[in-house]
Amino acid sequence: MLRYAVNQDKTNDFTTGRFLSMNSADLDFDQEHIWHPYTSMISPLPCIGVVSANGIKLTLHDGRELIDGMSSWWSTIHGYNNQRLNNAAKDQIDKMSHVMFGGITHPSAVALSRRLIDMTAPALDRVFISDSGSVAVEVAMKMALQYWVAKGQMQKTKMLTVEHGYHGDTFAAMSVCDPINGMHELFTGVLNKQLFAKAPQIGFNQTWSNDDIEPLEQLFIAHHQDAAAMIIEPIVQGAGGMRIYHPNYLTAVRQLCDKYDVLLICDEIATGFGRTGKLFAYEHSDIVPDILCLGKALTGGYMSLAATLTTKDIAQEICRTKAGVFMHGPTFMGNPLACAVANESLAILQEGHWQLQVANIERQLKQEFGAFNALNCVQDVRVLGAIGVIELKQAVDMASIQQAFVAQGVWVRPFGKLVYIMPPYIITNDELTELTNAIYQVVSAL
């Protein structure tokens, strides 16, 4: 017997697989039974029901539309319901939605890997396709560890990084997230102990001083013999605080890695594919990482997919261990459906329109976010590429501010003291103004 009866109006019939709309009963069920990211099951926040999305707008169950300022956690760079991405998915699903990647390859994976190699630095010519951003980071860390095992330096097991970083929610990834102020503090007792330096302090457009790299340099001096890799989010620290730092810091990181024989992992899950105004954020510093993690916008936000790229030398060294192979292999690695959509998403990027789109967003955000500096509740305003950040003096009440944004007709999801947006690249000037005006109305009321 079914535990929950089908809605009487038959709009949602899970016995036949038809889900045509949502009503209050659906939302009540969601709040009681479905565990959303970073939410309490004791006092869960109510969710809004989204029944469709197109362009930059989300359509709610009650017919209202919201301008999406978050690109669904920074991923839907081409907007929703993009016909080119739709067609890529439809074409692929009629051929095959999935096939194991062990001992089998397929055109979508080959085409995607070709594009990734073409778009990134020439040295990064080995591609490992995985399921999600956190897994891409896990893969990168395992690559670094297995590399040093192959080199006979078994003691190099630690990761160097900086405070305020965020690299994902799986266990290895959590170990290199900020250990004090990060969202994973309660797991401190069971995570591998990694090596943290003070985070970069000098902003993107501020005057550079070598003093900023000194804490990290001291960490390298003390621990390079035990360090397998340095992992860092290039230029923008995302979920750890939306901090935008000076490109010279990343240049100095590359120099330290070279000097002390430590691999450099750049985590571009959030910053990759144009978000900062460069195709990849490491290009702001004119450096090349040894290992590169990509995800989020890889498929244009259509489905979960990630990639970890490295060099021929590192890949071949990894395979000189006793195992003779790299020890990782997700079931859905190289999923054809996801690869096909990702390949088309990258094709859109390679046409180059994103450069003008992101430059226009940056210019407009700098102009319209300037008004926030006059508000007493605002601590700082930061803009880079298609990223706009308003740092408040006090943390927001998520429940009330979320409702206020929805009432203004926008979707913005703050965290802590940060109200920020990363809109789809296709947003128009008028839509962006509507978004920033709505944010101003809510923030000024604080």
What would your notes on this structure say?
The radius of gyration is 22 Å and the shape is globular. The protein has a 7-stranded mixed β-sheet with strand order 6-14-13-12-9-7-8, sandwiched between helices. A 4-stranded mixed β-sheet has the order 3-4-5-17. β3 and β4 form a beta hairpin. It has 13 helices and 18 strands. It is α/β, with parallel strands linked by helices and 446 residues long. It has 2 domains: 86-350, Type I PLP-dependent aspartate aminotransferase-like (Major domain) (Aspartate Aminotransferase, domain 2); 354-444, Aspartate Aminotransferase, domain 1 (Alpha-Beta Complex), CATH 3.90.1150.10. α3 runs antiparallel to α10 and α4 (107-119) runs parallel beside α10 (336-350). The model is unreliable at 1-11 (pLDDT under 50). It is 33% helix and 16% strand.
